[in-house]
Specification:
Strand content: 5-15%
Oligomer: single chain
Distance between the termini: 54 Å
Largest sheet: 2 strands, antiparallel
Radius of gyration: 19 Å
Strand order of the largest sheet: 1-2
Structural class: mainly alpha
Shape: elongated
Length: about 90
C-alpha cells in the first residue's frame, strides 16, 4: 500500500528520497521508500515515455498522459503532425 507519492524533477530525486526517509519515522510500523522507474504518474518507463512522446502518441492529460493506440481512425495519428505544422505556418503569416 502506497502512503505517499510525489513527483520531482530528475535532479531532485535524492533530495525527495531523503525527505521521505525522514518522514517515514512519523508513521507507525515499517515503511519503505521506493523510487519508481516510471515517468511521473504514467504507466510508461522513462525510455518508453521519451520514445512515444517523440512519435506524438502521448497527449498531456492533466496529471498523466493519454496514449494513442494504433487502433481506431488513422487521421488521429497520420494527419495530426501535418495539421499542426499547417496551423503554425498560417499563424506565422
Amino acid at each position: 500500500q502506497v502512503l505517499i507519492s510525489i513527483r520531482t524533477k530528475e535532479e531532485k530525486v535524492q533530495v525527495a528520497a531523503e525527505a521521505l526517509r525522514r518522514a517515514k519515522f512519523k508513521f507507525a510500523g515499517r515503511q519503505k521508500v521506493h523510487v519508481s522507474s516510471k515517468m511521473g504518474f504514467t504507466p510508461f518507463g522513462k525510455d518508453e515515455y521519451n520514445k512515444w512522446q517523440a512519435c506524438g502518441r502521448l497527449i498531456p492529460n492533466g496529471i498523466d498522459v493519454k496514449w494513442l493506440s494504433s487502433r481506431g481512425p488513422l487521421h488521429r495519428l497520420i494527419g495530426r503532425t501535418a495539421y499542426a505544422e499547417l496551423a503554425a505556418a498560417e499563424l506565422a503569416q
